[in-house]
């Protein structure tokens, strides 16, 4: 059986290749908790980032004749808190908050 011999002096010395760093996570967007109770919707939001976030609460009502609602934009600055509310006449199908840079 032949043994392979490696001369370590013949291996070029190179610095190790560093893997690419992942893209920085975007630091934007208030954290919102949305609660639906009956026909009432409440979203409580806190902006822990350095940019102002324009928030809108959107409510989709369950009944076809009940009018869906989109709130006006509310600016929440850094470290700011806001509570957004809306309602349907009857049941709420879904509710969500959208974010936009100012």
What does this structure look like?
This protein is an all-beta fold and 102 residues long. Helix content is 0%, strand content 44%. It has strands spanning 31-37, 40-46, 53-61, 69-70, 74-76, 81-87, 92-101. It is elongated. The termini are far apart.
State the order of secondary-structure elements, H for helix, E for strand: EEEEEEE
User: Strand count, sense and closure of the main sheet?
Assistant: 4 strands, antiparallel
Number of helices: 0
Portion of residues in beta strands equals 35-45%
Instruction: Report, as a whole number of angstroms, the end-to-end distance.
Output: 73 Å
Contiguous runs where pLDDT drops below 50 for at least 5 residues? none
Helical proportion, percent range = under 10%
Instruction: Supply the helix-strand structural class.
Output: mainly beta
Can you give the mean pLDDT?
87
| Number of beta-strand segments | 7
Which radius of gyration do the C-alpha atoms yield?
27 Å
User: Which outline best applies?
Assistant: elongated
Quick structural overview:
The chain is mainly β. The protein contains no helices and 7 strands. The strands form 2 sheets. Strands 3, 4, 5 and 7 form a 4-stranded antiparallel beta sheet that branches. The protein has a 3-stranded antiparallel beta sheet with strand order 1-2-6, with no helix packed on it.
Search tags:
102 residues, mainly beta, four-stranded antiparallel β-sheet, three-stranded antiparallel β-sheet, 0% helix, 44% strand, elongated
Question: How do the strands and helices of this protein lay out in sequence?
Answer:
Elements: E1 31-37, E2 40-46, E3 53-61, E4 69-70, E5 74-76, E6 81-87, E7 92-101
Antiparallel strand pairs: 1-2, 2-6, 3-4, 3-5, 3-7
């Amino acid at each position: 059986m032949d043994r392979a011999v490696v001369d370590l002096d013949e291996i070029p010395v190179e610095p190790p290749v560093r893997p690419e760093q992942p893209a920085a996570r975007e630091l934007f967007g208030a954290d919102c908790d949305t609660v639906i109770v009956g026909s009432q919707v409440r979203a409580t939001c806190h902006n822990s980032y350095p940019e102002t976030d324009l928030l809108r609460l959107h409510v989709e009502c369950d009944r076809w004749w009940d009018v869906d609602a989109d709130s006006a934009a509310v600016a929440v600055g850094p470290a700011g808190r806001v509570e957004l509310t809306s309602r349907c006449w009857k049941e709420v199908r879904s509710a969500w908050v959208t974010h936009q840079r100012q």
